[in-house]
Task: inverse folding
């Protein structure tokens, strides 16, 4: 069930009170200095950052190759199987041909 606001029970600020709480945008963050913990990459990359970037690049490259191998593996397996079958068939046909020639 939704809450329906009753305008008669709601307190309203006067316009002068609302204006006194407002600050100009230029001074909104004037006293705030950024924390170094919140901005770890403000300077050049540190050793661990470079190491992490390197690891991520290697991992993503490996992932691309892994996906390519996953899709290429069945094709390669079929080609290898056809190659072996051709080799075996050629061996038996040549052997049969040699044996028949030897008998004649």
Result:
């Amino acid at each position: 069930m939704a809450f329906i606001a009753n305008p008669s029970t709601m307190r309203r600020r006067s316009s002068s009170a609302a204006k006194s709480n407002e600050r100009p945008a230029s001074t909104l963050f004037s006293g705030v200095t950024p924390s170094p913990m919140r901005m770890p990459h403000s300077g050049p990359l540190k050793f661990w950052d470079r190491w992490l970037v390197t690891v991520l690049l290697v991992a993503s490259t490996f992932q691309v190759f892994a996906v390519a191998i996953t899709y290429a593996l069945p094709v390669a397996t079929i080609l290898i199987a056809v190659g072996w079958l051709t080799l075996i068939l050629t061996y038996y046909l040549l052997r049969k041909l040699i044996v028949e020639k030897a008998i004649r």
